[in-house]
Amino acid sequence: MSTDSQRVAVSFSAAVPNDIAVTPVRTADEKKLFIQFQYDMYKGHTLFVPPLLLEREDFLNPKKNPWFDHGRVEFFLARKAGQIVGRVAASEDPRYNEFHGTRVGAFGLFECIDDVNVARALLDAANAWCRSRGLTQVMGPASFNSNQEFGLLVEGTELPPYLMMPYNHGYYAKLIEGAGFAKAKDLWAWEIDVRKPVPEKIERVAEKIRAREGVLVRQANMKDFANEVRMIKEIYNQAWEKNWGFVPMTDREFDQMAKDLKMIVEPSLALFAYVKGETLPVAFSLTLPDMNHAFKAANGRLTRFGFLPVGLSKLLWAKSRIKSGRLVILGTRPGFRKRGLDSILMLDTVNNARKLGWWGGEIGWTLEDNDMVNRAIELFGCKKYKTYRVYEKQLVTDVPMKN
Question: Which residue, 171, 183, 262, 388, has fewest beta-carbon neighbours within 10 Å?
């Protein structure tokens, strides 16, 4: 189901076997099949966490996902002998291209049987759609940019995913590379055990900086949530502005994300850091409970049996038993970096998580070549344990870019 006002004719750059057909999603029923295929691909899989069906429907709904205010996307289904065997989305984010001065499209929401011909046909369709819009490069998986689902899990498929992190079959890397894509960048995830003491030197240095800089750390005030979100938004869009793959969120995107996360935020793990002489926070970190435990219990649906919300009751029961989380954001304003604020926020996060009775969780993701950040995480005793890969492919096109 294209979100373009004028649909683009797609032609394949390579021959597709006669028994494979790739077609764009055009009807509401096909959109349902597109969403359902992910659940079918992981049926009985012990590690996959089924996303809530309502969330997936909203995510792909232009009326409910603010990304569609500026983004463009086309969804494709692959059929072999009449059976659905794969899906992919091709997208364009004009804000990303304006921010980076590029002409890049993306593929995402990729799911496929273990068949390189099917994968090639799907990705050729995504490439052709991007080429028709005058784009010169395709990257992914990205659904639809780095603020959402980003990267392919290439190391760690034997481990369960944390909240808001993708999971995929291990053979997907072979399929994507077989379609001519090459590595653009690796993203790393780190495991942390808060039951272990923080290295004494790290704690000593962090407390010394706290005293010297007059650092005050406070937790989020959920009674003033709108104002807290405004300050987080400012830090977020400044802290990562020079990072590879980053694109600033619009106000609507950020507000929607905050609304979605409000119910699961643990205030003692949403921390603002101030330094002496500054009235506004200069750094922020957010660690979220790993709601994947709860989502897995609900099995993707908040179903009802009579008057009993069965899926919801399972979700809430599982939420109360969560003992781990994911550090999602830790950012510092320009001008206040390299002053140890990240170490202070990390230290306070570890101590607060320990007070909650957590065992630990995940930090990530980080860019593989962000040596300063990765070294700081290692010094805390964390272990790199997963790798997500973003791929790219150059396109040959003489088609002018569409608006």
Answer: 262
Mapped to the 3 state alphabet, what secondary structure does 333-362 carry?
CCCCCCCCHHHHHHHHHHHHHHHCCCCEEE
Q: At 174, which amino acid appears?
A: K
What is the CB neighbour count within 10 angstroms for residue 231? 15
375 in a structural domain = no
Pair 107, 239 in one domain:
no
Q: Which DSSP letter does residue 401 get?
A: P
Tally the residues of the chain. 403
Same domain as 319, residue 258? yes
Distance CA 203, CA 198 (A): 6
pLDDT tens-place string over residues 181-235? 999 999 999 999 999 999 999 999 999 999 999 999 999 999 999 999 999 999 9
Distance between CA 44 and CA 47 in Å, rounded? Answer: 9
C-beta of residue 105 within 8 angstroms of C-beta of residue 91: yes
What residue has token string 């219990």? 297
53 and 71, same domain (yes or no) = yes
Domain interval for residue 106: 20-188+390-394
The b/e string for 292-326 (b: 16+ C-beta within 10 A; e otherwise) is bbbbbbbbbbbeeeeeeeebeebbeebbeebebbb
